[in-house]
Amino acid sequence: METLCKSTAGVSYRKKHVRMVIDADVFAKCFRRPLDSIASHINDFLRRKANIQCVLVVGGFAESPLLIKHLCGQIDQTRCRVIRPKNPSMAILKGALMYNQNPEKIVTRISKYTYGIQYVWPFDSSIHPERLKVIIDGKKKCSKI
User: Fold this and answer.
1) How far is residue 46's CA from residue 34's CA, in Å, rounded to a whole number?
2) Whole-angstrom Cα distance, residue 128 to residue 79?
3) Is the predicted pLDDT of residue 114 greater than 70, yes or no?
4) Which of 48, 113, 129, 142 lies at a CB distance of 3.0 to 4.6 Å from 123, suitable for a disulfide?
5) Residues 25 and 10 sit within 8 Å (Cβ to Cβ)
6) pLDDT class for 117, splitting at 50, 70, 90?
């Protein structure tokens, strides 16, 4: 891990605390594509549907201040508000419980689109266990770190 961190700008390794530290701007760059994709999808949808007044953002990714800041900067707030409940992850659980108690209350429960991010590191046999090695596009990568 230490070798990997040394070779990556904006990333450092703290051996004493066994901690990897990522600069905020490097961290934000990791999410640029999914953030832009989500904002673009919402804006495309808003162009087609004139009567949308708000976007309710729920789920694990909605916990991210990066997502909310990005959406508020990309969506015309005078036309459509971005709303995040106090605990967006719990909204999913509460919705599932409400659906279980009264299925007629929930009009639709399947999201047509979901977004996420996955990252794999180059496999280094000196630091990664063999069981984590995967081959992607002919290159050795390390999964599940």
Assistant:
1) 18
2) 50
3) no
4) 142
5) yes
6) low
Q: Identify the H or E element spanning 10.
A: none
The per-residue DSSP string of 93-139 comes to HHHHHHHHH-GGG-S----S--------EEP-TTTS-GGGEEEETTE
Helix (H) / strand (E) containing 142: strand 139-142
Token pair 């508020």 is found at: 72
Q: Are 141 and 134 contacting, i.e. CB atoms less than 8 angstroms apart?
A: yes
Which candidate, 83, 79, 86, 92, places its Cα nearest to that of 45?
79
Q: How far is CA 1 from the centre of its chain?
A: 23
Average pLDDT over residues 51-68: 88
Tell me the C-alpha distance between 76 and 46, whole Å: 10
pLDDT at 78: 81
As a whole number of angstroms, the distance between CA 45 and CA 71 comes to 14
Contact 105, 98 (CB under 8 A): yes
**Can you give the pTM of this predicted structure?**
0.57
Amino acid at 65: P
Mean pLDDT is lowest, of 28-42, 89-103, 104-118, for 104-118
